[in-house]
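hey m, so remember when u said the tokens were messed up on ur end? i reran from scratch. heres the input so u can diff it against urs
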Amino acid sequence: MKLKCKLLLSSVFALSIVFLGSNTQAQHNHKHPHEKKIVAKHHKAKAGNTTVRKNNVGQSMKVIKRTNHVIVNAYKSVQKYKIHSGNLSKAVHHQQYAKKLLRNNKTHRAMQHSRLARKHAFVAIRTNKGTLDRTYELNKEEKLLVGETIADLELEKELKANTPKIKFDDTAVTEKEMTELETLKVAPSDYKNE
């Protein structure tokens, strides 16, 4: 009797393993369709061992659009209080260069210049006693997208090297209308990637 029970239990155990094993193979690992995913692939930069993130244009556009809002506020502050420190001009030029880089599909570098443009715009607002909107500081998602920041001095040198006749003069910026500055000038087709 004991032998029959052992044989019966071992055969039931063997059959359950066979059926359970085939059942687990039939199951697929599906992700929920509403899961939000950030496409950020890591690769090593050619210069040094800094981690660089490869981002799509839509994510870069979000960073650039938020910087545009800060630059508009800086523009209004400088026009109102007339304290010309050169920071508004730096913000505008870095933002224009960021958009040029974005058109050339250099998204990470574009976000770095946009980050620096936002920093200069905040300084221009503070210098002109304007009110800072803290909601436009880099948020967690933007910090993740930007990754390790490139030194501001390196970005300044890059901007000057690629636009040699550049002058950081706030009066030249505030004399023009905001639309003429090209700060907000991005083709509407570029916004479709969001």
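this time it looks ok to me. Confidence is low (pLDDT under 50) at residues 34-53, 186-194. if urs says something different then somethings off w ur setup not the seq
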